[in-house]
Amino acid sequence: MRPRRTAAFLFTAVIAAIILSGCSAKTKPESPEGAESTAQTESFEWFYESFDDAEKAAYDAFRISAERPFDSEPVLLKDKSGKETEIPAGDLAMVYQGFLYDHPEVFWLSSSYNYRVRGSIGGEETADAVSVIPIPESLAELDAMEREFDTASREILSSASTAETDREKATVLYNLLTAGTEYEEEALYDSTLQNEHTAYGAVCEKKAVCDGIGLAYKYLLDRCGIKCILIPGTGDGMPHVWNTVFWDGKWHESDPSWDTVSEDTKSGQYFDLTTVEMSKDHEREREGIALLIPVAD
Questions:
Q1: Domains of the chain, start order
Q2: pLDDT tens digits, the chain, 297 residues: what are they?
Q3: C-alpha dist (Å) from residue 137 to 100, 140, 250
Q4: Which helix (H) or strand (E) holds 16?
């Protein structure tokens, strides 16, 4: 029996140009002494390394804002020398998508963001400052979510601790994630269900859609030192996200969300495929960050 196809949601920024005040709110709290923060986990930044200098400046500003999501003051875009700079506002959506895909550990961020208009070039708005929009409503809620995420992810990772090779680790984590996550289709139509689009939804609530499951898989692989990239595109013509993972010197595509919803008794049928094999029912986006992603041979 073929797997049931389910529509999926891609991160699409809802851009809101605003005039941000200069008053500063409290920033995100530090983790307690002696505790390892999931937010400090080193992530594999494929998209950051693929961006040009202007895009990296915007990415870095989103990174700073993510560390203090309740701060009302926008973060200025600065180049490598520290000089204030600007970027076409239309480029921010790609940069923010790349930032979210590189950093599944910042699960508290909404897919929306704010930017400040500086001027225009050739009739197109430019932005010189950005700020993120947090999902939790308070620092206390965020702190509790981080602790829960850290505990739940450690439990999953412990199951892969005896695996020796990167492929073995990727396989164990893939199977745990697909078997332990419920595909929450309602989140595709209910904008209030934001956690289901994040790694937190898959790891802690055990409910997510394709981007949340893909982000969770990347987070777990990051923790194991294994390179992983999210791929935006379509599955059977519907918006979709899946992964490509690097081991044994090459890339391997996998789609954990389709194996999550599969009604086939054979598990892992979308694990470790080439791009050609995946393209039978998947198609990468033909613009934006998808063009930066390597092919799996």
A1: 15-134 (no CATH), 139-292 (3.10.620.30)
A2: 223 333 332 333 444 433 333 333 333 444 333 333 333 447 899 999 999 999 999 999 999 999 999 998 999 999 999 999 999 999 999 999 999 999 999 999 999 999 999 998 888 999 999 999 999 999 999 999 999 999 999 999 999 999 999 999 999 999 999 999 999 988 888 988 999 999 999 999 999 999 999 999 999 999 999 999 999 999 999 999 999 999 999 999 999 999 998 766 456 799 999 999 999 999 999 999 999 999 999
A3: 19, 8, 42
A4: strand 15-17
